[in-house]
Amino acid sequence: MYVLRTLTFIRLQSCVVVYRQTKMRISRESLTLSSSIAIIVMLVAVFSGSSAELLNAEDEQRLVSFVKNLMECRNIPGLTMTIVKGKEHKTYSMGVSNKETGEPVDSSTLFYLGSLTQSFTSTLIAVLTQRSGNVIHFDSPIAQLIGGELRLTNKVLSEEITLRDALMHRTGLSTGSIGALTGLPKAMSRGEVINQLKHLPLLGVFRDDFSFNQFIYTLAAYVGEKITGSSWEKLMRTHLLDRLLMSSTLVEADDVTAPGFARSYVSEKGVLKEINSKLFDAGPLAPASFMFTNADDMVKALKFFLGAPNLLSQVQLPPPVLEEVMTPRTLLPAGFRESLDKSHYVWPVPDVSVGYAMGFFRNVYRGMQVPWHASSSHGFTSIMWMVPERSIGVFISINGQKYSTTPLTPLQAITYTVTDLLLGEEPWINETSSCTFPETWIKLPEFPDVKLETKEPDHPLESYIGTFGNDLLGDMVVRKSTTDDQALSMVMSEVTGQLLPEGGNVFRLFLDGSFNHLRQPEEGKHPLPFLRFFFDFKVKECVAVKVPDSIFGGSPITFHKKPDVKEEL
Asked: What InterPro entries does the entry give (predicted)?
């Protein structure tokens, strides 16, 4: 009891300190004991919130039953969820954070956000623009802000790219190919990454085409570092997270398997297996993909993004600035939009994709604007979804699920249901359809179950062996396979795999090791091929290998063969 009272006193004392730091001009002399107590009660109420007006008992039971059923049928180990409406909020914790120990998820359990981190990075840039005294603007050329050291694939892009271009993924630059999986060499600094961005080729048209790019988000964060002299990690901590009282949220961590972190799981041959924790190390690309948070902290984040006037925090963005961050100016490509847009007549309730803003997608659901973002990476899938018109916010994260070509769909089913209940609408997804959503209305895409037919390469396998390097992405080692005398193997950071010949000088990568789940996620089906590798020869000597952006092709990144490196067979 003494500890409880002490913690309560400290919490109230912290509220008073924050209150005194606000711009409310109340002199100490005018505060009587009774008024001080009233203020403390008010602040604690704002901080704590309640669920009194969120959902009635029937809808609450309906939601919990819906989520539990979905978790069971989709084999989801653990889930954390935050719901906000106005000043009220509630958190939900279900399942386990660790399948081996059975540790239950609670509202303090940390879940990985992946690329949802970008919503926070873009918001941090917005905060810095407000605090810069008009030094930083979204439309300021980045080259001017960082002293002219920027060298991209061409002069026009180098000179004209702005923070807005970077934060909207409209540079047209390549995504970085296999670097999206491997990350970057651990010794690289952000400054060194920026100096090597010239190795990213153009994939689309500058300012016309959306091209998701974690390297360019890192460039935007680097601008903040150059202007302030502080790292992105420190800026995020001091200018945003601490001021929002998001004290548990992490943007750097030495051990993501420590107590308090949810473990994550991926489907390998139909069985959920824990992911290699080394894959979470984003290195210098952290501004685009590294953040761990929990349901409690996301209460504050959602209220902040919704512009809650009664939010207890030390950071506020003027509504026009928040709106600018969330206003789309980039249309999504057709293939990307199809997975996010439900405007077709087959859908009972339309959810229309409008475009992409700075770290936020924008949809229109039931006629209301919805800024949102989501991520699916290394077993974790998360979504943050807001309806500002009704002061509604939803955050959900899970730490695994059975194999799906569209891993976001279970969270979409929950999000639509929560939103409908909060709006007083009848949900259009029931417990039965949630298990196969969206297949009640459309057929999900499937990778063809086809065995790759290998063909004789143009040169002996020994000719392809060597170490290939790229100044941005690092080294890749190609050897003779130890398990297949007709194949090669490759190693690049944590990525390993087999290279099977398709004829000519083209090899197809089949991942294994830490990424074996991408090779054979389902039992009884042929392994799924990944990227193609195109080897370049001059006469009879291999000089480089080119790796496209995706399994569908795209602008390749070149890895040049390093001299004086001989690999033993």
From this structure: AmpC-like (IPR050491), Beta-lactam-related (IPR001466), Beta-lactam/transpept-like (IPR012338)
